[in-house]
Amino acid sequence: MMSEKKRLHPVAMLLAFLASLKEVALPLIIFVFIGRGGEGYSWWHFLIMGAFLLFTLGNGVLSWWFYTYQIRNNELQIHQGFIFRKKRFIPRERVQSIDTSQGVIQRIFGLVKVQIETAGGGGEPEVVMSALSRFDAEQLRSELYKSRRPEEAEETFVNEPPVKEYRLSKKDLIIAASTSGGIGVFLSFIAAIGSQVDNILPDEFYSIITERVMDATLTFILVIALIVLLLSWIFSVLGTVLKYGGFVLSRTEDDLIIKRGILERRQLTIPVQRVQAIRVVEGLLRQPFGYATIYVESGGGGGKDEQFSTILFPLLKRKRIQAFLEELIPEVPVHQELTPLPRKARIRYMIRFMLPSLIPALLITYFVPFGYLSFSILPVACFLGYLHHKDAGWSIKDTTSLLQFRQIGRVRVYVPRKRIQAMELNSTLFQKRKSLTTIQVSILSSLAGKQFRVRDIELLNGHDLLNWYSYNNSIKKQTDE
Amino acid sequence: MRPDPSKKIDRRGLKVWQITGVILSILLLGIVAGMFSLHYLVVKLPIWSLVATCVVVAVLIMLQIWILPLLRYKKWRYEVSEHEIELKHGVIIVKRTLIPMVRVQHVDTRQGPLLRAYKLSSVTISTAATTHEIPALSNEVADELRDKISVLARVTEDDV
């Protein structure tokens, strides 16, 4: 048992200093360059700058000194702060995941950053330790995970050998990167920069550009648009390669371990016991080539870009998924069978897509010449509805439920019965008339909870699902076997 | 078909919803009064807009005071067995919820001033991912239900 109080590695001071410098970088630059009058720097400039630097440094040192952690009474106890004292105690059983990562500075010093997550509590990890030596991090990890297997508590420092490793090949990485669909993100990023440029560039520049654009032919505008698209695509490819390069997934007896990243190495450990659901997503660009991404929903972990879940494997042939999951996580049995939606639900899907485009189309037709052309969007909406209907479905096999639906890409979610927090059937009056219903399954996720739903399944099937989930039924099944 | 849950909520809940409806209706009438005073004191509004507002408000008031509370009360069903909680409610969207006892994290009873005046409480059931409410039970029933669920939920099979 680790009982003495420990501090982070002293490099944490440097990191804190840099972090606060980054925060004030902009005001500082303005202060230095714009604050300077005609006659150069005066003594008070230096005074303020000096005081500021001293304060930041002192703050870094003091925060480091007052930040201690220890494991006592089966809890991770963290004390921090010197003006506002903060204590955070986390029971061992509540730790959902422990991630390590290495930024550039951690790499230089051979250290790691440790992030500890508990269930719920939103996007930010509950504990962030910016710099620990590898030894300390490993010790902390094994101490925190020890309680799960009390009989093997002795072998704490040895990492159990991984049963099997799965690597993402270079070719697959490139495919994953070029079909990542992160284009949208980068486009909005460029748009954001563009809107900032507004404030910096002089007005004359603007009027020149506007004149040019007015004069420009359609081809010119198209070329510009293409270039912007291409650039954002290249950036998104680069971003994905940096993030998922060197991807290695391994399975030990109790854990899934994911290592990834080229500049910043990250290591995520997900206890298999904490896996809530497995999500297979076939993105719009990947589906035609038969590729999919596998996500794992666990109590903690995952950033906004991964919808608060974790990428278990970035790219895999659809055909290989079944075998891959069976080998990797036999605890969550998966199957392929799927009950499609009834035919009578198709029209509802089409209407659901057409209605939102109908009203703008009507308005445009009324106000804009040739506005009726906008009605050409209706067949597209119709087709989307058709696709969403075609790809939706559900099934249950033994103790696993499968929900399939489309959210741009095609999504398949496997949820074991004991991971479902609550099951709900919602029927609107219209659905009731056709005896249809919407099934909704809630699971635990790092962001309070997550809901998966399939609309317009047969009402009787909805009741089948409820019965399958119901306690009485699961008992009956067990006694039958 | 799975049988519906059997228990109904307290009839006094209907009264509480009707009173809430009356309060909302007074606000709506305030809007109508505002429009009419605008019409007579400041600027003439087209007659059809006044009539339309009156009709819409009349319908809304009917719905709020009379129809919706009654339907809501009639549709509410719940059942708490040893192993699970089942709810069914909703007028326009019928919701049917199944919560296994082992998934319940905690259970509360609450009451606002209106509920308190009628000696009613609502019971709120939380899982790790969701929250569910049974509105308007008599204080005794609510307390009993809360204690029962809390005892039953203590038997956890495995941790999340």
Biggest interchain interface, per-side counts: A-B, 36 and 26 residues
Please identify, by name, the CATH architecture of the largest domain in chain B: Roll
Mean pLDDT of chain A: 81
How many distinct beta strands of chain A?
21
CATH class of the largest domain in chain B: Mainly Beta
Number of domains of chain B: 2
Cα separation of the termini of chain B:
31 Å
Question: Radius of gyration of chain A from the CA trace?
Answer: 28 Å
> Low-confidence parts of chain A, pLDDT < 50 over ≥5 residues?
149-158
Give helix and strand order of chain B, one letter per element, not per position. Answer: HHEEEEHEEH
How is the main sheet of chain B built? 3 strands, antiparallel
The count of DSSP E runs of length 2 or more, i.e. the number of strands of chain B, is 6
Explain what you see.
The complex is a heterodimer of chains A (481) and B (160). By secondary structure, chain A is of the alpha+beta class. Chain A is 43% helix and 28% strand. Chain A has 15 helices and 21 strands. Chain A has helices spanning 11-23, 25-34, 43-66, 104-109, 134-146, 170-178, 183-200, 203-215, 218-244, 318-328, 346-367, 377-391, 429-433, 459-469, 471-480, and strands at residues 6-7, 68-72, 75-80, 86-91, 95-102, 111-118, 127-133, 164-167, 248-251, 255-260, 265-271, 275-282, 291-298, 310-317, 339-340, 393-397, 400-407, 409-416, 422-428, 436-443, 450-458. The longest helix of chain A is centred in the middle third of the chain and has 27 residues, at 218-244. The relative contact order of chain A is 0.08. Chain B has two domains: 12-73; 78-153, PH-domain like (Roll), CATH 2.30.29. In chain B, a hairpin with a 3-residue loop joins strand 5 and strand 6. A three-stranded antiparallel β-sheet of chain B has the order 1-2-3. Chain B is α+β, with helices and mostly antiparallel strands and 160 residues long. Chain B contains four helices and six strands, in the order H-H-E-E-E-E-H-E-E-H. In chain B, helix 1 (12-42) packs antiparallel against helix 2 (47-75). Chain A binds chain B through residues 93, 119-120, 274, 276, 299, 418-429, 432, 442-445, 448-451, 460, 462-463, 466-467, 469-472, and chain B through 1-2, 81, 83-84, 90, 92-101, 103, 127-130, 132, 157-160. Strand 19 of chain A pairs antiparallel with strand 3 of chain B, so a sheet runs across the interface.
